[in-house]
Each structure stands twice: as C-alpha cells, then as structure tokens.
Specification:
Blueprint: E1 10-16, E2 32-36, E3 39-44, E4 48-52, H1 55-67, E5 70-73, E6 84-88, E7 100-104, E8 107-112, E9 115-122, E10 145-148, H2 153-168, E11 174-184, H3 191-201, E12 206-210, E13 213-217, E14 220-225, E15 228-239, H4 244-256, H5 258-275, E16 279-283, E17 289-292, E18 296-307, H6 313-320, E19 328-329, H7 331-341, E20 352-357, E21 362-366, E22 370-374, E23 377-386, H8 392-411
Parallel strand pairs: 1-5
Antiparallel strand pairs: 1-9, 2-3, 2-12, 3-8, 4-7, 6-7, 6-20, 8-9, 10-11, 11-19, 11-23, 12-13, 13-22, 14-15, 14-21, 15-18, 16-18, 17-18, 20-21, 22-23
Bound molecules: the ligand C=C(O[C@H]1C=CC=C(C(=O)O)[C@@H]1O)C(=O)O.
Domain Chorismate-utilising enzyme C-terminal: 155-402
GO molecular function: isochorismate synthase activity
InterPro entries: ADC_synthase (IPR005801), Chorismate_C (IPR015890), IsoChor_synthase (IPR004561)
Length: 413
C-alpha cells in the first residue's frame, strides 16, 4: 500500500463479509441510501458537504475534491467502491427556494452481485476498518393525515386544461405539470422506515435517500460505468388495477396508445439528442416496452451508448436535465410554462439524484415518486406529461397513482 502524503485525506475500500440488511446500517439521522433489488449503497457521516446553483459547479467541485483524496482499495474497478459523493439537484435553480447539494460521507457500505465492501474516508484510518454500528430500530410514522399542497386537485385540473388549450394552439408540444401533497405524522418521520418500505415494494426502482429527499424512482437519467452509458427513459403511463386480466389489457392498450407513444417519443428524442455529443455507438430501440411497477405501467426505452473519455456522470446528467419526461418539448418553452402555470416550488423533485465516484462514473436517477421529509411532515410530489390529447381528470388520477408509493410507504405497517 502506498503512503499517503501527510496532508491528504485517505479513502480506503476493503472487501467485507455480506453485511445483511443494508438499511439496518443507516444512522438514525442523516444517512444516505441508494438501493435496488437488495443491492446498493448506504452511507453515513459527513466529510464534506457543499451546496450548488448548478450541476456544472458540482462537477468541478467534486473533481477537485476527489483529486485530493488518496485512495487505497482492495476492489479496484468495482462500481460504487472508493470515495463517493451523493447528490441531489433542484429541478429549476431559477424557480426554487432550495439548493442542490453534494455530500461526501465518512463511510459507505456497498453490495453488488454477492460482493460487499466498506469504504472509509478520513485523515487517519486504523489498519482494521470497522463497520458502522447499526442504527436504532426503524420507527413507524403513526397515523398519517393529508392536506393539499400548493393547489387543490380541481385547481390543478384547470391548470392542465389551460396547458392542453395552449398546446392545441401550437404554443408547444408537451409540458410536464406537477402537484404536491402534504403528509403529516403525529411524530417525527423516520426516513429509514420509508426507505425500507420503498426498497421492499419497488425493488425494480432505485430507492434513494439524500438529505431528506426519499423516494423510489423508476427512471435512470444516466448511468456511466466502465465506458458504457445507459439511460432509462419513461413517459406514458397507465394505472394498474387489482385485476390481472384487466392489467394485461391495459398494458396492451398503453403500448398502442398514440397519445402515450407520442409523449414517450418526445422524451426519448430529448435523451438521445442530449447524449449524442458525449457518446458514440448509441443504440435507441425503435419501440418502447412496458415497464411493470406495482402501481402503474410505463412506456420505457433503454438507451445505451459508448462513453467518450471526457464527460463524468455529472456532466452527462447536466446535459440531459431536464428531459422531456419531467419538463417538456421544446425544453425552454416548457420550463417557462411550468414557471407560469404550476404554482409550485418543485425543490429537488424531478432533479437528478444519485452518486458519483472519483473517476466520474456514477448513477443519477430522476427524483420521482418521492418526498422531502422534515420533522413530522413529508412533502410529496408527482407530475404528468401533458400533450394535446391529455384529459385533465385522467391526469389528476395519474398523479394520484404516482403518489401511491410514498403514501403506502408512510402508511405501511
Ligand atoms: C413526472 C413524473 O413522471 C414522469 C415519468 C414517467 C412517466 C411520466 C408520464 O407518463 O407522465 C412522467 O413523464 C412523476 O412521476 O412525477
């Protein structure tokens, strides 16, 4: 092992035995999580924390910070090992009271395909790295009550109706409009409880927890890993029922619905266009598949490409954000319409959330099916793509279906 210069922070990764339940390792407050199908990353402690106005500044800051770390690893090349920064970015820096953030945790425990590891970052590290002690038992939130957020359901329907009229008049092609809901518990909400419930019920999604923003996103904005770039584009949704046969018919209907296929195409085109300068050999499937989640079906397309050397996962996220799945088409017009009509501070909802390693590889989902937990309140968000053929009542119902993962997680038990 090489000696670190005295003034440099060390980051050491060692292989460990399977730690079992990752979420059980999260500290009672301030933990970070990124979980899918039982694997993933949990982290705690804070070596550095920085707020940003834009993703470019975060990319630059992390590059400089990571370059100063002295990494030592037993697992070179395993994604998620080494020092990491977890981050969460606002949707629209010009229309929010909130800020984007990167956090460099003191310890990270990861597991992927049967391989587990511990990374610790610090000025002096003992020879034998110890696992963090498990947090206290997860606490159920108790009886949840709900209140309208910035708008009632009917008021939001009229906003959607206005957007449809303006789309029909040719102002733009698609806009994604979001709404919020306030959930209140009798006591402080334990975000680890919500993480655990989401990770269990939505294991095909990426369950995240970064600075109070907790959710299970089905949409991978961009993953950069060992020279390969992947993006999962979603747009076009239908709610599931309790009836399997009916669901099969709905899925078939979704895959043929011209309204949903059109909405989806805008989103795929926006991703392919934004990725092109950073990639070669891009593969964009001709037609979407139907992604099945417990609450909804989505039209989905997995775009893959070979990464050019320059362009970290954060740079790619910056190029892609906001896609037509959360903003609209054309982007600038849709963003303006959102500012004008939505009447909502989206905060970090629908912005990139994820992690980046010292080489720039990382995973950034779009923060969907999520809420910001603070004290005894969870501020929940959901949005819908609106096109010329959209029906306001159906969009309101769709937004409610998209709130189900968080509501169920809060109410579970
Ligand atoms: C904006 C959201 O979903 C997006 C992702 C998938 C499908 C969508 C839709 O069909 O409208 C949305 O574009 C949300 O869940 O809040």
């Amino acid at each position: 092992m090489t000696q670190a210069p005295a003034n440099r922070m060390r980051a050491r990764t060692v292989a460990i035995d399977d730690p079992g339940d990752l979420i059980g390792l999260l500290p009672d407050i301030g933990g970070l999580a990124w979980i899918r199908r039982g694997d993933g990353l949990v982290a705690g402690g804070c070596i550095a924390r920085q707020e940003f106005d834009c993703i470019a500044d975060a990319d630059e800051w992390w590059r400089a910070y990571a370059a100063e770390l002295h990494p030592e690893t037993e697992l070179a090349g395993v994604p998620g090992t080494g020092p990491l920064a977890f981050g969460s970015f606002v949707f629209d820096p010009d229309n929010t009271a909130h800020r984007s953030v990167l956090v460099v945790p003191e310890w990270i425990v990861g597991r992927r395909d049967g391989q587990a590891w511990l990374t610790r970052v610090g000025e002096s590290l003992p020879d034998d790295l110890a696992l963090p002690s498990p947090g206290s038992a997860l606490r159920r939130p108790g009886l949840i009550s709900y209140a309208d957020g910035s708008m009632s359901g009917p008021a939001w329907e009229s906003v959607v109706a206005e957007a449809v009229a303006r789309i029909k008049a040719g102002e733009l092609e698609k806009v994604v409009l979001a709404r919020d809901l306030l959930a209140r518990a009798p006591e402080e909400i334990d975000s680890r409880w919500v993480v655990a419930r989401l990770a269990e019920a939505y294991d095909r999604c990426w369950t995240f927890s970064v600075e109070g923003l907790v959710g299970a996103s089905p949409e991978m904005l961009v993953r950069r890993e060992a020279g390969l770039v992947t993006s999962r584009v979603l747009a076009g949704t239908i709610q599931r029922t309790a009836d399997e046969e009916m669901d099969r018919a709905l899925a078939a209907h979704l895959s043929r619905s011209s309204k949903d296929l059109g909405e989806h195409e805008y989103a795929v085109n926006s991703v392919a266009h934004a990725l092109a300068p950073f990639c070669s050999g891009m593969n964009v499937p001709d037609a979407p598949y139907v992604l099945e989640l417990p609450n909804v079906f989505h039209l989905a397309t997995d775009v893959t490409a070979v990464a050019r050397a320059e362009g970290s996962s954060l740079a790619l996220a910056m190029a892609l954000h906001p896609t037509a799945a959360v903003c609209g088409t054309p982007t600038a017009d849709a963003r303006l319409m959102i500012r004008e009509l939505e009447g909502l501070d989206r905060e970090r909802y629908s912005g990139p959330v994820g992690w980046v390693d010292a080489s720039g590889d990382g995973e950034w989902a779009i923060a969907l099916r999520c809420g910001r937990i603070e004290g005894n309140t969870a501020h929940l968000f959901a949005g819908c793509g609106v096109v010329a053929g959209s029906d306001p009542e159906a969009e309101l119902a769709e937004s409610m279906a998209k709130l189900v993962p968080m509501r169920d997680a809060l109410e579970a038990g």
